[in-house]
Amino acid sequence: MMKRPGTAAAAAILLAISLVLSGCTASRLNPAGGVDPRALLAEFSGRGMVGHLEALQRIADDNGGNRASGTSGYEASARYVEEQLRAAGYTPVRQTFSFRGEGRNRKQVESFNILADTAGDAGNTVVVGGHLDSVREGPGINDNGSGVAAMLEIARWMKDSGFSPANRVRFAFWGAEEDDLDGSRHYVDELSADEVRRTALYLNVDMAASPNGVRSFHDGDGSDFGEAGPKGSQEIEEVFFRFFESNSLPAETTPFVDGDSDYEPFLRAGIPGGGLFTGEVESKTKAQVQAYGGVAGKKLDPCYHKACDTISNINADLLKEMSAALAYATATYALASRG
Which residues make beta-bridge pairs with 253? Predict the structure, then answer.
């Protein structure tokens, strides 16, 4: 996850301006019923997200301690993701792009996204995304190996269960998020006006296992933080709310913040968005301790963007719950009808 720039108020203004200027409106889907949130929580309580995190930790250990875009650690992480997707029956493809690296000269760095599609109507594409890269300071196991692990297991679950989507689901593993959201920006910039309309919504997962974390999902209608997403984002918020309520799991909303994560390019393009987040530098409140447990006054992720963001820096139970929540939203929209 990118460091949060500016104020929430400034973010709201920038987002509102961008949405007014956007001339393209994504197709809308009515969330489907019939997906059992309790069954999905039980299913993902036994799936192998932690195994993926262990693999990403080994990759970082073997490549200078990180998995940053443009490094051997990122390439090895990408190969792991591609191997897992191919083994599950997908055909992953790389979408290449370049971005300006760090340092005084800021040379161009080559990187790529990884995209993998299910069957289903491409006219109602549901994009599920999270960034694959880490910062250079550490291995990025919570930020965002946790999101990668959730996406891989959802992709595998859809194949294992024989799930038959009515709408195409595109799993997108973004590069260079930690630089300037470069991978997701490139993806959205490359969409034609018709492809924007055919993108029904975007679901983001960035940090799903914060060790002192909370369960949060984005405030799609802006009723809590004043920063609404494009039309259709409220329904995504309601889908996540339904999952947590049905499983008697306390949860709260979190704002869209301009430049914060890979949802931003989609929102700017007028594509409805939502997603999950378990927290970074904020300190846990006493009220949150009552809801989620943990330690009051301690950061939600004390190892955010640090070398200690390792396999020891995760809440495995929280990862299971958030993975199941993302699976529920993905399945609900994969079966949805056009509005």
Answer: 217
